[in-house]
Specification:
Helix content is about 25%, strand content about 20%. Strand 1 and strand 2 form a beta hairpin. The protein has one domain: HIT-like (HIT family, subunit A, 2-Layer Sandwich). The protein has a 9-stranded antiparallel beta sheet with strand order 3-4-6-5-10-11-9-8-7, with helices on both faces. Strands 1-2-12 form a 3-stranded mixed beta sheet, with no helix packed on it. It is globular. The longest helix is centred in the last third of the chain and has 22 residues. It is built from 7 helices and 12 strands. By secondary structure, it is of the alpha+beta class. Helix 1 crosses helix 4. About 40% of the residues are buried. Bound molecules: 5,6-dihydrouridine-5'-monophosphate and zinc ion. Zinc ion binds next to loops.
């Protein structure tokens, strides 16, 4: 493995990342983040996601007991038909097109204090089943072409509320990241008659150095081309376009992998580890997608401790992403991190 500066290629996006292993020990005199409180109440009367509480606009949440979903009160996408009068004048350099869609908020549990790794397995499975059900309902709407399930976790990632929740946005056009992944996976499948991610995960299983955890149906690994220090990808072991295609055994296997990843994350610095996580499902265009392998990306901002984060600034904004700690070193640290949640020892 390289120990000097090199570039690695991301075959899913067609982009490169600069890796600088020799730089991992540089001193840090920059920003130090505040550590958010580790313990939250079971119920917070001021939380707009807790059962029975009021949301914006005066709607009250029901006294829910499992997952709970609602249309975002401040939705970025609206389902209504576009007003033709609203279309801006066209010019080849000033392009805008109308966009329609839906934005849902999905609470994991009525408990204000339980994050994904702390839920019991059945509750974690029901979160995945809820994501799958909404995804297929949204995909069935005739104008929807893509459904994005994601979770922003932690104030550092701009999450507005610690009550464990995720979001689902569905829109009428393919978002940027999905367009890239569709093009690369389609091209690879045409040339190799095998899905790109199936070949990739098989190769990683031979090498083992970037694998965190695996079971019969899913593998969690730090991708060879990871940009974020502790980036993780969770990939299905078969060609599969949608969460709704998963069998109940696969849903359980996915819940196990997610809880393994997020427990190790939390244990790494003994904090509730912040990240943005999301699934990449195939386009909801009614076409078969044999090239597509359902996967999730975890993008956590932390770098070397609970308080020092990676900033995607400077060279990253203007030229290309760069990392110091290698993906192999990050994978090893996550493998060595316990799979028993640190809060259980505190209890
Ligand atoms: P975050 O995952 O970024 O914290 O988002 C929570 C969402 O909850 C956010 O998109 C919505 C915000 O618009 N929200 C409501 O739908 N109703 C409310 O009463 C407050 C926040
Ligand atoms: Zn709450």
């Amino acid at each position: 493995m390289f120990i000097t500066p090199h570039r690695r290629f991301n075959p899913l996006t067609g982009e490169w990342v600069l890796v600088s292993p020799h730089r991992a020990k540089r001193p840090w005199l920059g920003q130090v983040e505040k550590i958010p409180p580790a313990v939250f109440p079971v119920y917070d009367p001021a939380c707009y996601l807790c059962p029975r509480n009021a949301r914006a606009g005066g709607v009250f949440n029901p006294d829910y007991t499992g997952t709970y979903s609602f249309e975002n009160d401040f939705a970025a996408l609206l389902p209504g038909v576009v007003d033709e009068e609203d279309t801006p004048p066209t010019h080849p350099l000033l392009v805008a097109v109308p966009e329609r869609g839906h934005c849902l908020v999905v609470c994991f549990s009525p408990r204000h204090d339980l994050t994904l790794p702390e839920l019991d397995r059945a509750s974690a499975e029901s979160v995945i089943a809820t994501w799958a059900r909404h995804s297929s309902d949204l995909a069935r709407e005739d104008y929807i072409r893509y459904v994005q399930v994601f979770e922003n976790k932690g104030a550092m990632m701009g999450c507005s509320n610690p009550h464990p929740h995720s979001q689902i946005w569905a829109q009428s056009q393919l978002p940027n990241e999905i367009s890239k992944e569709l093009a690369t996976q389609t091209e690879y499948y045409k040339t190799n008659t095998q899905p790109l991610l199936i070949d990739y995960v098989q190769e990683e299983h031979k090498r083992k150095e970037r694998i965190l955890f695996t079971n019969d149906h899913f593998t969690a690994l730090v991708p060879y081309w990871a940009v974020w220090p502790f980036e993780v990808m969770v990939t299905a072991h078969r060609s599969c376009g949608a969460l709704a295609e998963l069998s109940s055994a696969e849903v359980s296997a996915l819940a196990e992998v997610f809880q393994q990843v997020t427990t190790r994350y939390d244990n790494l610095f003994e904090i509730s580890f912040p990240y943005s996580m999301g699934f990449h499902q195939a386009p909801a265009d009614g076409q078969p997608h044999p090239e597509w392998v359902l996967h999730a990306h975890f993008y956590p901002p932390l770098l070397r401790s609970a308080t020092v984060r990676k900033f995607m600034v400077g060279y990253e904004m203007l030229a290309m992403p760069q990392r110091d700690i290698t993906p192999e070193a990050a994978a090893e640290r996550l493998r060595l991190s316990s799979d028993r949640h640190y809060k259980l020892a505190l209890a």
